[in-house]
Amino acid sequence: MTCFDPQGQCSSVGGQVNPQGFEAGAYYDFRNVGPMRLGVDFRGGTQRSNKSATSSGGGSDATGFNNVLLGVRGSFRTRYSWMNPYVQMSAGYAKSNASLPFGAIAPGSVVPNPPRLEDNFLVYEGLAGFNIHIFPMIDLRPIELGLGNMNRIGSGGTVDGPPSIFLMSIGASVVFHMPTSR
Questions:
Q1: Which residue, 68, 64, 62, 67, is CA-closest to 47?
Q2: CB of 152 within 8 A of CB of 120?
Q3: Cα 174 to Cα 133: distance, rounded to the nearest angstrom
Q4: For residues 137 and 175, what is the distance between their CA atoms, to the nearest angstrom?
Q5: Which residues lie below 8 Å from residue 36, measured CB to CB, with a gap of 6+?
Q6: Contact of 145 with 169, CB cutoff 8 Å
Q7: Residue 17: exposed, middle, or buried by beta-carbon count in 10 A (0-12, 13-18, 19+)?
Q8: How far apart, in whole angstroms, are the C-alpha atoms of residue 50 and residue 38?
Q9: How far is CA 105 from CA 110, 111, 144, in A?
Q10: Domain 11-176: which topology?
């Protein structure tokens, strides 16, 4: 994806958008409720990008997002023992500068002024996906889709951004877990 950046700050990665990050978590399915296996999910992570979705500006770590979520999860058995679909609702805390606009560029300068600060958010997100059982302690999660919202808590930025931000996510992962009987 090409990084639209009139200031040329994305040139260090060949003009491309470079999102990256890491997320880790754990879940525990503990009770059967009808056809569903009820559980809890805890996850957190950090993501960075050289491009902001709210501005044409860019640069190293232009946008950051750190989060921690706790959720209720329901997984379902299918007629295929190797496939395990799930849905969950999570809530938690996030810290991000994604909602804050870039500052004005001083003449002859490539440094945004004022510096971008981070705001705190209450986050809630609905997630759905499925795991494919590979080995006794490893599953592959080829897709996880999420929809949610971030609501600002206070104001840490130099310029107030919107009080609420809509979230959409798509991800894939490798899941390590304790051995289970299927």
A1: 64
A2: yes
A3: 10
A4: 8
A5: 74, 75, 76
A6: yes
A7: middle
A8: 39
A9: 7, 7, 38
A10: Porin (2.40.160)
Tokens of 117: 């600060």
Residue with tokens 């491009």, as numbered in its chain:
51
Question: Domain residue spans in the chain?
Answer: 11-176
Cβ 50 vs Cβ 60: under 8 Å: yes
In angstroms, how far is the first alpha carbon of the chain from the final one? 41
Strands (E), the chain: 20-33, 36-51, 58-76, 83-96, 104-105, 112-113, 119-135, 138-153, 164-176
Read off the pLDDT of residues 138-169 as tens digits, 9 standing for 90 and up: 999 999 999 999 998 876 554 556 788 888 88
Amino acid at 136: P
Please compute, for residue 70, the number of CA atoms within 13 A of its CA located in the half-sphere on the CB side. Answer: 2
- pLDDT-derived band at 41 (thresholds 50, 70, 90) equals very high
